[in-house]
Amino acid sequence: MGSDVLRREQRGPVLLLTLNRPHSLNALSRDLVVALRDAITSVASDQQTRAVVITGAGRAFSSGADLTELEARYVAGDTALGEDLRQTYAPLIRAMRACPQPIIAAINGVAAGAGLSLALAADFRIAARSAQLVLAFIRIGLVPDAGALFFLSRIVGLGRATEMAMRGEPVTAEAALQMGLVSAVVDDGAALDAALARAAELAAKPGGALRLIKSGLSRAAMLELDAVLELEAELQQEAAGIADHRQAVRAFVERKTRTSPSAG
Ligand code: T3D
Questions:
Q1: How far is the CA of 214 from the centre of ligand 1 (A)?
Q2: Which of 8, 25, 83, 182 is deepest in the core (most CB within 10 A)?
């Protein structure tokens, strides 16, 4: 089941990771961030897992960095926030993007600060109707981190990202859907099931091609057209060498041959 702060459950081909500090709305303590990073890093080489779902225990997805822990560190004279990001959040976000399996964030309740950053680094976000998404950093005089500066404007555009980052106002799930920040809104209590259903759908697709698509989309965002065309050629060459592709083409042609009136 994993460490107490992070529950780990294998559900067939889907790994379900539950942030498990409900008393603080799943605030991201250092040990939780490290546990999540380790879980996601190890799934990369796990042949059994074909998709990952991250959700929160209780009524929230995550309230972001654990401010009680942060204050204790300040009181102890530790103000090295930059180094903390390099050591904890940055490796987690890198692991999420390097993870070959798709990651789905089931936003069961509020996602704030670095809790929202986590969801932004996932491949899909499915939100409960009453969930609020808040880039809370400005409320405590901080800059969006854990990848939010990178992902948010790419997902919703610079204008909306500026609005969320500078105002720090909560965005409702419905508004998030309108701006493409989440891909679905479901009834309260149904976000996890909807995310598991999405994970099962993805788990049934060719895993090698999903890995190449994830890598290709990440890399293409930073390249010129000519470089993207070359990247596509390289990725497609790799995809063509995976058995899934050849089998799917053969199955299509055989089906067509069987059903065509002119067939034998
Ligand atoms: O290197 C570094 O670590 C820096 C990185 C920083 C990255 C960041 O994420 S900065 C942003 C940090 N997060 C926030 O500023 C959000 C703080 N929380 C809130 O604004 C509100 O709690 C929410 C809007 C998320 C939810 O509000 P509400 O009214 O639904 O719940 P609540 O009553 O405020 O919170 C419930 C409990 O959770 C409460 O504890 P209690 O009084 O019942 O014992 C509250 O203190 C606790 N809690 C909520 N958020 C955090 C937290 N405890 C620790 N850290 C939190 N972030």
A1: 32
A2: 182
Cβ distance 179 to 152 under 8 Å? no
Nearest-atom index, ligand 1, CA of 67: 55
Ligand 1 contacts CB of residue 209 (under 6 A): no
Give distance in angstroms: CA of 233 to centre of ligand 1. 46
Q: Is the CB of 62 under 6 A from ligand 1?
A: no
Q: Is 49 exposed, middle or buried (0-12, 13-18, 19+ CB in 10 A)?
A: buried
Give me the tens of pLDDT residue by residue for the chain, a chain 264 residues long: 445 999 999 999 999 999 999 999 999 999 999 999 999 999 999 999 999 999 999 999 999 999 999 999 999 999 999 999 999 999 999 999 999 999 999 999 999 999 999 999 999 999 999 999 999 999 999 999 999 999 999 999 999 999 999 999 999 999 999 999 999 999 999 999 999 999 999 999 999 999 999 999 999 989 999 999 999 999 999 999 999 899 999 999 998 888 876 654
Query: Which residue's alpha carbon is nearest to atom 17 within ligand 1?
Result: 63
**What is the model's pTM?**
0.95
Q: How many residues does the chain have?
A: 264
Closest atom, ligand 1, to C-alpha of 85: 1
DSSP string of 100-114, one letter each residue? SS-EEEEE-SEEETH
- Cα of 9 vs centre of ligand 1, distance in Å, is 26
Q: How far is the CA of 199 from the centre of ligand 1 (A)?
A: 29
Evaluate whether 139 touches 101 at the Cβ level (below 8 Å): no
| Backbone torsion region of residue 25, taken as left when φ is above 0, otherwise alpha when ψ lies between -120 and 50, otherwise beta | left
